[in-house]
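Notes continue from the previous slide.

Worked example: a multi-chain complex. Inputs as given:
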Amino acid sequence: LTSDLDQSGNAYQQAKVYLGPSLGWVMQQVKPEKVVGAGTIILQPGDSLIMAHTDVGPITVQLPDVVPWIREAAYQPMTGFERAIWIKDVLGNANVNNITVTPFGTQTIDLQSSFTIISSFAMIRLYPLFDLTGWFRG
Amino acid sequence: MATTVLGPGGYPRGPYGNFALKRPPPSALPPSHDLTQLDRGLQFQSMLTYRGPSLGWVQTVIKPQRLITVGGTYFIQPGDGIILVNAMDFVTIILPFVADWVNESFYQPAESFDRSIWVKDIGGHAADFNINIYSQSFQFPFEWIDDQDHAVIVAKFGVAKIYPLTDLTGWFLDI
């Protein structure tokens, strides 16, 4: 990894975050990046900053179920710091190859069933709603 | 006559060192819609943040959310982070003095992690019922939000992300 300056195997900052007496203190990555390409991508625990390469074709990003995302079972890796998901058109072709973001099941993004990035270099920042009904755009 | 003393953690214990009358669990249940409080008390992530030699390491909550469902005026409280507005009425948010917010007295809860205040229209009503956010511009020392006395959310599902200026003159908007 090019950003692994100390060759420790950890490319990103981490922070110890308290998740309650059951899970205790867990190590969370701060804005870990994941590169995705054309097709359908299902986000996984630990995903946080999604760098979408829109040069080949449209991308569909399927968000995780917000309930386990917040309740956070004792799995590894944990959700990223502050539990947010950022999706960025890093190559600037989203005006041609749209990025469609779809929530899990009947969950919503700002009360909508999906959100589409149609502008070059645009980014959407998603945060889970505390009532577990979906996500809001920050 | 037996004497009750407090052991570690505040538990009363008998005179022979046996723990007795352990504290009962909290009687108040979390709101029924709130599935996130797995341990009946923690809704959001938190972490230790260093706030200087006086306050030391402080447990700060990360992006805590507060829901407002009725119109009116709400004064930001210590510990607030994200204010979610879902009201079919006009809502006014009053920011605290930025000096109080940043200098941070030794109270609990401490300010949330990164000290930002976000106001989000999650109901999509802001186009009809604007959300006004006022700084302490109406009294000394006359603080501002980007040189304005207030910011307004006028777009559906709009969000205002407000951060304190470290020179304590006011706030700036992340737009």
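Summary box: The first helix of chain A runs from residue 66 to 71. Chain A has a mean pLDDT of 89.
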